[in-house]
Structures
1.
Amino acid sequence: MIHDVVAQLDNLVSTLQTLLYIDVVQPLLFKFGFMGYDEESYDALYWVIIGALEILVTYVVLRPLEALRPIEDWTNRKAVRADVLYTWIAKLGILELGFFFAMQPFFNHLQSLMAIYDIPSIDIDSLWPGVTDHPLVSFTIYLVVLDFAGYWYHRWQHRIGVWWELHAVHHSQQQMSLWSDDRNHLLDDVINSAYFAALSLLIGVQPSQFVVLVAVGNFLQSVQHVNARLPLGWLLERIFVSPAFHRRHHAVGYGHEGTRYGCNFGVLFPWWDMLFRTASWNRTVEPTGIRDQLPPPAGTSRDYGQGLLAQHWYAFVRIVQRLQGRRAYQ
Ligand SMILES: [Zn+2]
Ligand SMILES: [Zn+2]
């Protein structure tokens, strides 16, 4: 069934790709003298359309919920604007897919070298032959393995001071919304994409499945940031990371303070937090953000920047301050 849905979607995207290419992209390439890039542009357009469709579906499903059942009422939505820009850049830039396809020949070569020298592969199908024959089974296994890697990636983002300064861009949003998931430092985005693409290739994820894994992961993570009351119930909340669970991770004083302290790092599933004792199920709605953004005496009214450029620049300034030993606070 999943196969049919993916095939139908592929058809739809391919039709859009051809239409847009002939009517928009090709005339532009011709006009600006870039016809040498026609093949690459045609291929990239496919992923740009996937990204745009993702944003459209997320908005259509989640925005009405935010309007009908908000957790926090805001009179001014200005702070959300930067996150909308982050989302368009992240989704249309299609970093993960770019890295996956760019690194594929290298990993194919690596795997044949490993076979020649008899080095055991960690490709899931060779560890457990036949298990990936069923698309749904292999999809679930890949999702769980990558999510485990995501949990640790997220813990390192909090644990390693310099890395935290990049991740602080994500946490500095005090008005969480369906757009907040992609509010990440672009350098962190690059590291993240390379990490997951490399890992996926290493465990043998096929390109068609990688596309779906990225799309499902992105959608679930947008749901977690939504400013809407979505009580999943006791059981579902322990299967998937809920908005309440992730909001706790963003809560000032609870989710991310100190190098050892912090809770709810799970990306899609809260299982790793339960296993490694970092889960908090407290549902109290707390202010979100970073403590030093608060006015004194609680914080220092630190400005993390309103727009994308300022947020990127300030992150580098904080990294330099940290390296010079002038910043210990996490
Ligand atoms: Zn975090
Ligand atoms: Zn978040």
Note: The CA atoms of residues 71 and 147 lie 27 Å apart.
2.
Amino acid sequence: MNSPEASPLEVRVAAKTLVAQDICTLDLVRADGRPLPPAEPGAHIDLHLPSGRVRPYSLCQAPGEPRYRIGVLRDAASRGGSREVHDEVQAGQTLRMGAPRQRFGLAPQAEQHLLLAAGIGITPLLSMAQALQAQGRRYTLHYAARSRAQAAFLDLLGQPAFAPHTHLYLGDAGQRLDLAAVLSQPQPGTHVALCGPQRFIDAALACAQAAGWPSAQLHFERFGAEAGTGPSDPAAGDQAFEVELARSGRVIPVAADQTIARALAQAGMEPLLSCEQGVCGTCLTPVLAGEPDHRDSYLTPEERAAGTQILLCCSRARGGRLVLDL
Ligand code: FES
């Protein structure tokens, strides 16, 4: 259906490594031995798991490495994806993977980068730090984890190249990342990249906005919408509406307690889904007419205002009908 990418690639799990408590990495190479497509720092891929689940993961390898690396947190609130990676995926196994997609890149015009990570949010920022290090550009990485045991990639970040740029905050050592202090002084030319759970992003953005950082200098990616608070389920008071599929003329009713994706699936279609929480962008679909009611965390304010795209897993219609380019 609305595939935003070419057919998935077959990849082989070249290595699986436990790099911290409840965090493993998978190294992925192409099953046919050919080179992987280039990936920019901050890019993510959709991994198709043996169960059929599709999950987005940020790439965290250094630039130019011949394999991709993803880091996966075993999430107690998981809907099954992270548990499957930890418990069932093994080195040597063949999986399918979508091409890298980029929503969270380094601002090319920045003179300096401030990278703020919480928990598993370190993964895209690790790829950024490695790229900035390789290019000799100015950056500082602040990384908060609940404990030393739950902090990943400490061997790498402790190396002489990275250590002077890295500030580590370990909760079990009584250390805390003071977002208000780190973001207290907006700097022209400095761009901030944030990655972590929703509460961390919200707190960081609130501090940055209170300090007067221009929104154009703030870039973020949320990880792991929290259990029970994900945006995908309709809310009380939501109304039924219809979606018209422009290519076939079919009209599909969407009930008040249904998402567009579920209504399409019920009508026999197979919308491509991944996070199902409005975070990853896999289900992004062009809107030809009607007004979307955006419920996602993926589109920018400008994209929301334009109203020409919608996330099928969570967003709805303001009027009675949306016309989709499907
Ligand atoms: S499936 Fe991830 S945003 Fe819809």
Note: The chain has seven helices and 18 strands.
